Every structure is written in structure tokens, then in C-alpha cells.
Amino acid sequence: QVQLVESGGGSVQAGGSLRLSCAVFGYIPGNYCMGWFRQAPGKEREGAANINIGSGSTYYADSVKGRFTISQDNAKNTVYLQMNSLKPEDSAMYYCAMSWGYCSLRRSDFRFWGQGTQVTVSS
Questions:
Q1: Residues 13-50 pLDDT 10s
Q2: How many whole angstroms separate alpha carbon 104 and alpha carbon 42?
Q3: CA–CA gap between residue 76 and residue 50 (Å, rounded)
Q4: Residue 30's pLDDT is what?
Q5: Cys-Cys crosslink for 97: which of 53, 76, 104, 110, Cβ 3.0 to 4.6 Å?
Q6: Which pLDDT belongs to residue 112?
Q7: What is the pLDDT of residues 77-91, one digit of tens each?
């Protein structure tokens, strides 16, 4: 069983920064992928960034590229999402997720999900 616990959300003004954390508990495979997704009210859940825990390679959606950075701390079994230059359109519930297979930004590739943390960016 895997449990993912997000934290770090909050309210910030446009141009500000937040750092989200996702702690992983339970069974951890030797290699896996972690992703950050977000869902705004009335919209589909979309992938923002992922990281291959084994290789450290990362991938970003165009909408966040250059502003968000995903990273890992293997000693703490934690993945982070540093979000800079935040815009009102970044407001959403942010979820971390784990894939044991493909490392993508497709929801269907991710098996385990956290409960989400809210990010609100005001103009």
C-alpha cells in the first residue's frame, strides 16, 4: 500500500512563490515516477510536471515550464514542486501521484494519488 501526503498549498499574490511537498509512505519500489497534477473548478485534471525517481529526469507541461521545478529528496521520500512567478491561472487543487510504469503527464498512467492541496493565486 502506498500513501501520498501533500502539503504546502496556500494563498499568494500573482508573481509570488510556493513550494509544495509530497511525502511518500508505505511500499516504495526501486524505480518509479512521481507527478504533480492540478485541477481547477470545472476543468479537467492536467499534468504539470513529473520526475523519474531512478534517473532524476524531469518533464514539464508548457504552461509551467520555466516557472515550476520538480525535485526529489530520496532520504526523506519526498518530492517537491517549487512554483515561482505564479499567475491567477495557476490556481487549482494540486495533487501528487505515483506511477510504477510510464512516466508521463497522463492521469491514466498514475496508480496512487494524494488528497490534494489548494493553491490560490490572486491578481
A1: 999 999 999 999 998 888 899 999 999 999 999 999 99
A2: 23
A3: 18
A4: 82
A5: 110
A6: 97
A7: 999 999 999 999 999
Give how far the C-alpha of residue 62 lies from the chain's centroid of Cα atoms, to the nearest Å. Answer: 15
Q: Which amino acid is it at 9? A: G
The number of angstroms, rounded, from the C-alpha of 18 to the middle of its chain's C-alpha atoms is: 12
What length is written for the chain?
123
CB neighbour list of residue 48: distance below 8 Å, 6 or more residues apart: 35, 36, 37, 38, 60, 61, 63, 64, 68, 81, 94, 105
Grid cell, residue 103, equals: 512516466
Cell of 108: 491514466
Residues 6+ apart with CB under 8 A from 103: 33, 35, 50, 51, 52, 57, 59, 109
Q: How far apart are CA 106 and CA 108, in angstroms?
A: 5
